[in-house]
């Protein structure tokens, strides 16, 4: 039986909520900002309406740049409580149609409707759009495909308020002519490598031999080829299934390191990954755990439980580095061979906010803006100032990320810092 996956993406979500709640903003370029003072030029744009995008304003740009590009635009401070309330509402709407719902981000969902016939799956996608428009007075773009990758790329084809259906037979004609940068998983750095290899379209990537891609990029090369062919077997991570226990990344430090500046930057890079995956899957964490491996000694852990749960990269790093610095004497005597950080004691977004667990509203909004930019333009499109040049300086340090789930299952993904 062929899978049928729906990807639902709210259109210019934060800005659309503001335009709905304040009719005076209708038709105007609205920019939802993370800033302490809305009249200042400090801060970043978390979301831009389609009218603002026509001026070249995108998520992640500075407020100063946005004002220069769109001086007559409407700048508003983000209200994350309101956005999350609406997010819970459209999640409930989706669960009326199936229990197999994966919260991908605050404004995106996947639904598995493989139990339906093809025609009924298309009808369900349309009914979803209609229900959200009626109950929330918001629009969304929907993609229907045989897997998550195809469904997500399909939802981008006809924005805003579009419905695109892509079958396996449709994939080559629709996506092969597109620039390779449009393929999910191809960031700016990978695009550069592919362009150097003579690959500029998704079709050209699909036409390469897997032996060549694996030789050039390792295991990610195999994934790239499958993605270019429109193949993806990733299951829907529906809540209510196997519960996630923690999100963790760790990095081997070669023969050992005592340079605390370098170790702390590795830790920051790991915290970036943990925070990104937590937010993407919709969790807060209340306990931060540090894992260290010291040369000629052993592995050990240290942890700290927060008074309020968080999904903020800054807070995760702040607590993790405090734990690390307490072990400076050990690290000076016995070089560090491995460092890892985990976010534990998790609560899903849906109940975390209701129970008042969450903290760091402002930093969380900035993190989400950065997440959006990274998802679209690649991991290196937005880099914290303290990490600029870090990957080049310490190139070759391997990073392994691990998501722990119950019943002893684990999923691994090798990357490079």
TrEMBL record:
The UmuC domain, residue ranges: 5-187
SUPFAM superfamilies in alphabetical order: DNA/RNA polymerases, Lesion bypass DNA polymerase (Y-family), little finger domain
GO cellular component: cytosol
Pfam families on file: IMS (PF00817), IMS_C (PF11799)
GO biological process: DNA repair; error-prone translesion synthesis; SOS response
InterPro entries: DNA/RNA_pol_sf (IPR043502), DNA_pol_Y-fam_lit_finger_sf (IPR036775), DNA_pol_Y-fam_little_finger (IPR017961), DNA_polymerase-Y (IPR050116), DNApol_IV (IPR022880), Rev_trsase/Diguanyl_cyclase (IPR043128), UmuC (IPR001126)
Alphabetized GO MF terms: damaged DNA binding; DNA-directed DNA polymerase activity
NCBIfam families: PRK02406.1
HAMAP family: DNApol_IV
Name under which the protein is recorded: UmuC domain-containing protein
Source lineage: unclassified sequences, metagenomes, ecological metagenomes
């Amino acid at each position: 039986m062929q899978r049928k996956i729906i990807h639902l993406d709210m259109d210019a979500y934060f800005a659309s909520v503001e335009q709905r709640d304040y009719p005076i903003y209708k038709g105007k370029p609205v920019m939802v900002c993370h800033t302490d003072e809305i009249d200042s030029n400090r801060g970043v744009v978390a979301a831009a309406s389609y009218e603002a995008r026509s001026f070249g304003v995108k998520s992640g740009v500075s407020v100063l740049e946005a004002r220069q590009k769109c001086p007559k635009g409407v700048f508003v401070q983000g209200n994350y409580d309101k956005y999350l309330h609406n997010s819970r509402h459209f999640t409930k709407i989706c669960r009326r149609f199936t229990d197999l719902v994966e919260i991908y981000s605050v404004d995106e969902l996947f639904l598995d409707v493989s139990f339906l016939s093809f025609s009924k799956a298309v009808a369900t996608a349309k009914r979803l759009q209609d229900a959200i428009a009626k109950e929330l007075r918001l629009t969304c773009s929907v993609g229907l495909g045989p897997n998550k990758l195809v469904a997500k790329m399909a939802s981008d084809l006809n924005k805003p308020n579009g419905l695109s259906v892509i079958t396996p037979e449709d994939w080559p004609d629709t996506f092969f002519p597109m620039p390779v940068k449009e393929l999910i998983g191809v960031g700016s750095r990978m695009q550069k490598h592919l362009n150097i290899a003579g690959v500029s379209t998704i079709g050209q990537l699909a036409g390469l031999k897997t032996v060549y891609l694996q030789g050039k990029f390792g295991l990610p090369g195999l994934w790239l080829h499958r993605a270019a062919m429109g193949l993806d077997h990733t299951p829907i991570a529906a809540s209510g299934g196997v519960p996630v226990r923690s999100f963790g990344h760790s990095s081997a430090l070669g023969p050992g390191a005592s340079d605390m500046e370098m170790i702390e930057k590795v830790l920051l890079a790991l915290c970036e990954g943990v925070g990104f995956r937590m937010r993407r899957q919709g969790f807060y964490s209340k306990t931060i755990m540090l894992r260290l491996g010291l040369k000629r000694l052993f592995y050990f852990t240290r942890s700290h439980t927060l008074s309020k749960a968080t999904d903020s990269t800054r807070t995760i790093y702040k607590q993790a580095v405090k734990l690390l610095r307490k072990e400076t004497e050990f690290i000076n005597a016995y070089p560090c061979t491995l460092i890892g950080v985990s976010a534990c004691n998790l609560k899903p977004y849906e109940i975390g906010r209701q129970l008042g667990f969450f903290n760091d509203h402002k930093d969380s909004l900035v993190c989400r803006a950065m997440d959006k930019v990274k998802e679209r333009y690649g991991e290196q499109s937005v880099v914290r100032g303290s990490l600029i040049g870090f990957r080049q300086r310490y190139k070759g340090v391997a990073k392994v990320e691990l998501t722990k789930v119950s019943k002893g299952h684990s999923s691994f993904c090798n990357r490079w810092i």
